[in-house]
Design brief:
- With 192 residues, this protein is α/β, with parallel strands linked by helices.
- It contains 6 helices and 6 strands.
- The protein has a 6-stranded mixed sheet, with helices on both faces.
- α1 packs across α6.
- The chain binds guanosine-5'-triphosphate and magnesium ion.
- Guanosine-5'-triphosphate binds next to α1.
- The site of guanosine-5'-triphosphate has 21 residues, from α1.
């Protein structure tokens, strides 16, 4: 049996990593912010008609926990990298902080899915007036630049686990198709 795929949630503190994972797992979200130190949940997913064992790793966005964080996700097969559309710093840190950390921690070959959170707040009057919201085209361009396997915009407040599932399916499918490609390459080398 294949080894469990490790899928990690990474990004700035408070961008909604834990909320997204909670919605995907069909659990109830809580509005009160509780910073993550480390969490790991085992599950099963069906991707391309096949059942795959997955371990979801929820990491700490807070920089105080950076040493623990890199240990918690260094064996990842795929990373779901999150920023908030209402926090431009979290968007800019994808390039300046998270991509360099990911490359050091899991390597350049591990697939990334980029997720923009808090899109329900884009229409909020106060937010519109006071905050420079990250646009869809800016998010998409970043996803292209970092060679992400997918770009999604989401709001966890709706509790829509179907929308969340799309994100996780994209991530796991990227690992599964990567493994198939690797096997095909090996067969191409050894079976002439
Ligand atoms: N309006 C809105 N609030 C959200 C959304 N996603 C998360 N939140 C809220 O944002 C806050 C932070 O969410 P978390 O999921 O705990 O953030 P995190 O990225 O896991 O933070 P760390 O664990 O510290 O790294 C919580 O109060 C959530 O209720 C969203 O899509 N819309
Ligand atoms: Mg968290």
């Amino acid at each position: 049996m294949r080894r469990r795929i490790i899928c990690s949630m990474v990004g700035d503190a408070m961008v909604g990593k834990s909320s997204l994972l909670t919605v995907f797992l069909g659990q109830n979200t809580i509005d009160v912010y509780a910073p993550t130190v480390f969490a790991s949940i085992k599950g099963l997913m069906t991707v391309g008609g096949k059942e795959v064992k997955v371990k979801f790793v929820d990491t700490a966005g807070q920089q105080e926990y950076s040493r623990l964080r890199v240990l918690s996700y260094k064996k990842s097969d795929v990373c779901i990298l999150c920023f908030s559309v209402i926090d431009r710093n979290s968007f800019e840190r994808i390039r300046t902080l998270w991509i360099p950390e990911l490359e050091r921690t899991v390597g350049k070959r591990v697939p990334i899915v980029l997720v923009a959170t808090h899109i329900d707040l884009k229409e909020d009057k106060y937010v519109k007036k006071c905050i420079s919201i990250v646009s869809t085209s800016e998010g998409q361009k970043l996803a292209d630049d970092i060679n992400a396997k997918g770009y999604f915009e989401t709001a966890c407040t709706t509790g829509d686990s179907f929308a969340a599932r799309e994100i996780f399916e994209c991530a796991i499918a990227a690992v599964v198709s990567g493994r198939k490609g690797y096997l095909r390459t090996l067969k191409g080398i050894f079976i002439k």
